[in-house]
Amino acid sequence: MGTFQNVRWQLAQALEWRWWRAYLKRKPVADYLEEKERYWHRVLEEMDWTVAPGVSVADVGCGPAGVYIALHDRQRVTAIDPLLDRYEGLNVFSRSAYPAVRFLPLMLEDAVDLGPFRQLYCFNAINHVRDWAAGLDALTAMAEPGTELLLTSDVHRHAWLLPIFRALPGDALHPQQHGAGAYRNALLDRGWRIDGERVLRRERIFQYHAWKCTMEKG
């Protein structure tokens, strides 16, 4: 891991915390959480995702209001995020409101010994990690044959902009800059079968991409 990438990741983590604090400052807690839960249900439905009742799952890169808020009473959730302890300072985040959820302040790359899980959720988190390949390796290590993965990330729409954003902090919140093809190849190389792929949101530079996968390798 190069020094530049490590510094870039540390900057992104600091900016991520500041972004959440500013974003949530004027939002009523109850309204935000209700809106967020409706959003999670909508995404799962859009991806034709079946929530397997009662199984062990991981919400990887959960943030202060991850998909665990929609699943805590339906699945056995482990919620992972390196900023969890800092999220204690946000009024929308309360571990005690979700007593069945196991919260772990971990980087994805350090979560290789967790699991295996029956389902994995990784929403808009893989482009926040320090080491992209190691993060995908860790997701794979948390799986077993038959494990289902729902992965989302902003990806570049224009190939010519990708090297520019990698060289310059044009998107400082996201230290990882990749195209959809790179994600697709990385998943296939690690033994994931891609069952579904959708663009959930499209913007000028990025598009928010989702993959529904099943682990095939033993």
> Strands of the largest sheet, in order across it?
3-2-1-4-5-7-6
Helix and strand element order: HHEHEHEEHEHHEE
pLDDT < 50 runs, ≥5 residues = none
CATH class, named Alpha Beta
CATH superfamily: Vaccinia Virus protein VP39
Describe what you observe in this structure.
This is 2-polyprenyl-6-hydroxyphenyl methylase/3-demethylubiquinone-9 3-methyltransferase. One of its GO terms (biological process) is methylation. InterPro entries: SAM-dependent_MTases_sf. GO terms for molecular function: methyltransferase activity. The structure is a single chain. This protein has 218 residues and is of the alpha/beta class. The protein has a single domain, classed as Vaccinia Virus protein VP39 (Rossmann fold). The chain is built from seven helices and seven strands. It has helices at 3-24, 29-46, 68-71, 84-87, 132-141, 162-167, 180-189, and strands at residues 56-60, 76-80, 102-104, 119-123, 148-156, 192-202, 206-215. It starts with a helix and ends with a strand. The model has no long low-confidence stretch (mean pLDDT 83).
